[in-house]
Automatic annotation (TrEMBL), chain A:
SMART domains linked to this entry: AAA
Keywords associated with the record: ATP-binding, Nucleotide-binding, Transport
InterPro entries assigned to the protein according to its UniProt record, in alphabetical order: AAA+_ATPase, ABC_AA/LPS_Transport, ABC_transporter-like_ATP-bd, BCA_ABC_TP_C, P-loop_NTPase
Single GO molecular function: ATP binding
PANTHER family the record matches: AMINO ACID ABC TRANSPORTER ATP-BINDING PROTEIN, CONSERVED COMPONENT OF ABC TRANSPORTER FOR NATURAL AMINO ACIDS-RELATED
Protein name, as recorded: Branched-chain amino acid transport system ATP-binding protein
Domain called ABC transporter: residue spans: 3-252
Family annotation (PROSITE patterns): ABC_TRANSPORTER_2
Lineage: Bacteria, Bacillati, Bacillota, Bacilli, Bacillales
Keyword hit for ATP-binding: yes
TrEMBL record, chain B:
Family matches, as Pfam families: BPD_transp_2
Organism of derivation: Cytobacillus eiseniae
Protein's UniProt name: Branched-chain amino acid transport system permease protein
Record keyword Membrane present: yes
Protein location: Cell membrane
Its membrane topology: Multi-pass membrane protein
CDD domains linked to this entry: TM_PBP1_LivM_like
Keyword Transmembrane: yes
TM ranges: 9-28, 86-103, 156-175, 205-224, 236-267, 279-298
Main localisation: membrane
InterPro entries: ABC_transp_permease, LivM-like
Ranges of Acidic residues composition bias in the record: 305-314
Region annotated Disordered, chain positions: 304-323
Amino acid sequence: MSLLTVNQLKLQFGGLIAVNDLSFTVEKNSISSIIGPNGAGKTSVFNMITGFYRPTSGAIELDGISLVNRKPSQITTLGMARTFQNLRLFPNLTVLDNVKSGMHCRTKQTVWGALLRTKSQREEERLIEEVALECIDFVGIRKYTKRAAKNLPYGAQRYLEIARALATRPKLLLLDEPAAGLNYEEKQYLIQLIRRIRDEYNITVLMIEHDMGLIKQISEQITVIDYGCKIAEGSPEEVLNNEKVIEAYLGKEDVI
Amino acid sequence: MKKYKKPSLFLLVICMFILPFLLNSYWLDVLTLVLFYVVLTQGLNIVVGYTGLLDLGYAAFFAVGAYTTAILMTTFHWSFWLTLPVAFLFAAIAGVIIGTPTLRLRSDYLAIVTLGFGEIVKILATNLEITGSASGIYGIPRPAIGSYIMASQKDFYFLILIVAIISIIAVYRLGHSRIGRAWVYIREDEDAAEAMGINRIKLKLLSYATGAVIGSFAGSIFAVKMSAIAPLSFSFLQSVMILLAVVLGGLGSIPGVVIGAALVIILPELLRGVEDWRYLIFGVSLVIMMIFRPQGIWPTKNNTEDVDDIETEDPNQSISISK
């Protein structure tokens, strides 16, 4: 069964068509990827799915609920979390406070609760901390819990962003180039982490990635886009041997 | 250090309650003004410090509180205590009104709109009949508790002291709740906050409204203390002085802005001896302060550990040291 359905999605900035007639689905409990050369429109697709861009036309559905014309915060509340291509942490806050942000949409204390320190407010605060610590443990950055996010090593910042997204308790996790800037060991760790997210939390993962090695190892379903259009889809073997894909990445062989 | 925090705070509060019996009426008046500024800076701290929205028209909310109380007490003969909830309501509405057009604006543009709003409120107060035009409203009755009528300097000192304590506790508690954290997330990175499921429009408006309510609280008490109010008390300069206290003390830091409020009021008083040079020295000291301590006198720590602390705690490292 598909969790995310994207149908005939189009995004136009003035005369430039960034994404054109794109359709794909993401199966529940799968690890899927969107790949494509630089500027192909991958991040634009992510931004439309998460509500940061409004599509010119087309439909996006999460678990049967339409996401078009919703605010990013509403979409997160419906069960979708994302990370950003260029880290978007809360730099001056601790790792713990960063991850606590994810629980905002799962809790509901108001100003009154906070002012009066009601019992339910204190219980909710305890729950927020508990979930945040669990997510921090899960990605393996427990020793940095009280450090400011900006003072973390780069790899740990990437894992922190994933922990923060997990704290929103999503059904679908969108990772925008999670391996960018990571070294070999960190990439291996990331692969394990993504698998554990799917296996232990039953969260469906959709990612954009450039690292073909990484994609071949964990992706079950790949959608390839170029110039905003889908040019291929299927399993890693199918896609990576596809002529159109090779052409998009390496260019066409000139016949002299 | 943390162990002594509660007892020392308790001691400070007791001192504040004893102080009026030791001071002459001049310094008691100065201290009362400091406490007004403590309330105002705490309110502005929510908007500027927590949420990171620059507000150059904050005195407008001070005015909304003062005028609401003054009008209800003089024209409609309400009891002072009953005017408070109405003042809060009007201030919250004013907060939402100023908040709505600024939602899409950032930094400098935001500052200009809030500045304009502050001026609009002042000009309205100067020209409307109900607010007594330029001469303002006078003869505001004294508030009463039962049959006791609050009239002395000390009465108002204690009243504003209690309100200052309430507002400090309120701002502290809000800061340590999901609402307060959401404000800080918006300050740190608006888009990331939105992506984490935080409705930035709702929370920004809530921030304006909450800050406005605290500002109006100070305004209501100001009206009954002075027993006369005029538009001049709510000028742009007033907004700037409140903002100055917040920035000087340390954005988002509760003890910081309390110190900032005290400095902004007491320093010019201490400099009275040098007469004409007073504001020059005050200005120069502010410039020096901002150059050498741009983060404020008592900045927030956000509970972060210093990086060095962690390195020494790292088990691998301590093993290599013991070898």
